[in-house]
Amino acid sequence: MLKTVSGFNRIGEENAFAVLARATQLANEDMDIINLGIGQPDFSTPDHIVEAAIKALKDGHHGYTPANGTLACREAVAKRTHTMTGVEVSPENIMIMPGGKVTMFAAILMFGEPDAEILYPDPGFPIYRSMIEYTGATPVPVPIREENGFAFSAEETLSLITENTRLLIINSPANPCGGVTPKTEIDKLVAGLEKWPNVAILSDEIYDVMTYDGETHQSLLHYPEIQDRLIVLNGWSKT
């Protein structure tokens, strides 16, 4: 018989998948549904990627890989990062993870503990708060306001940091409201973080190329002064 592990009681529901299940049910009932609940692209995996995966299997690329990902894959990510940002990142500083949520969980788990505080965007991806609460840390919402174009305010964010803050999570371009924080605001944030050298930053940049109406994504990789406490989350699942 399975026993309930007390830690699981602290994990909140993944709301996006709850919406997906309900939308799927309604679609099966012949209702016309536009599902905005989960970040699933509206196109199939491109043929060249499918063929590359098939070829890799046929060529014998089976079994375990290094825990941080194969060197060839990490080198490819480093090349893509340089192409997109102009910043050189060593493959030694890159980890291949099985999804963005795993990256969030690992980062939050490193810094989350009772009496610690972790700042997260609100509204934002539900897993941020769920994982913070799971670690026993205190979730501190950073308001994402319409008057700021649904971008975070550097001044307001910095005002929420205390001696107990261990991690700051930022997300630009942002889920769910689509705000893109301008470079001037990120400059202010990074400058203000000089006062808080023990606060780590998780920058969720998975929507980096999905900008419109002249907006431009500013990666936190452009700020060498926070490089030693910065975790950048990115991936292929959206683009």
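The record above closes out task 2.4. Task 2.5 opens with a second protein, given below.
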Amino acid sequence: MPERVEIVPYDETWPAHFREIADDLDALLGDRVLDIQHIGSTSIPGMAAKPLIDIDVIMPTAADVIDACPLMEAAGYEPRGNRYDADIFAFMRRTATPRQRIYLCPEGHDTHHRRILFRDYLRTHPQAASDYQALKLKLAEDFEYDGDGYTAAKAAFVNDIVARASKR
């Protein structure tokens, strides 16, 4: 059965959840970790979001990403495969509250860079953040049981914000 696209009000505990998860990931993956970044809507103060903490774990190389995958699985993360290209691997932990989606990314990857541009722009531009929240709430109704459709329908907005952020 398809999973419902659920958007909930901002939860003040999300940043603390991120820090706990980041500490666990740092301990699990060790010196392979260059950086751990909170991404997605839960990383934007005040933003309504899916109750899901999205995290990018930056590693030195694509080979380090591949080497880390078995460690993630052994720690109970569900592998979700390649995302965006052959270098990024996603993992879910659905049993945690809130749920977790972890992306292992090689250093310098454009997808990670775009996510940070988007996040930081929304953190510093309240009107854009408000517009994004309104779009997400509408799309969650329009695509209630179609997560891929929901994500695809946000793409033009996201690309526009990334383009604006890139010009700064």
